[in-house]
Amino acid sequence: MSTVQNTKHMSASAQTTMVTMDTVLAVSAAILIGTLIIGAVGFAAPEVVHSAAHDLRHGLVFPCH
Questions:
Q1: What pLDDT score does 15 carry?
Q2: What pLDDT is recorded for position 47?
Q3: Consecutive 10-residue averages of pLDDT for the chain (65 residues)
């Protein structure tokens, strides 16, 4: 096959995907809850909770300071 024929074949097989509103809401809720948990634990008063979260952030290579 020539390059032109390969290009036509590849472009003909492209598909679009549809994202439903349920998926958007689920991903948005997960991001919001995750952000709230990280924020709440990061600013927690008990030093043990804060230190555990701090060590976890370093383990996940998440910037914290």
A1: 78
A2: 77
A3: 54 75 96 86 73 77 71
Burial of residue 3 (CB within 10 Å: 0-12, 13-18, 19+) is: exposed
Token pair of 24 as six digits: 């958007």
The two tokens of residue 58 are: 């370093």
Give the Cα separation of 65 and 28 in Å (integer): 26
How far apart CA 7 and CA 9 sit, in angstroms, is 5
Copy the structure tokens of residue 47.
């030093």
Whether 62 and 42 have beta carbons less than 8 Å apart is answered as no
Yes or no: say if 53 and 64 are a contact pair by the CB < 8 Å rule.
no
Annotated domain spans of the chain: 21-65
Task: State the pTM of this model.
Answer: 0.47
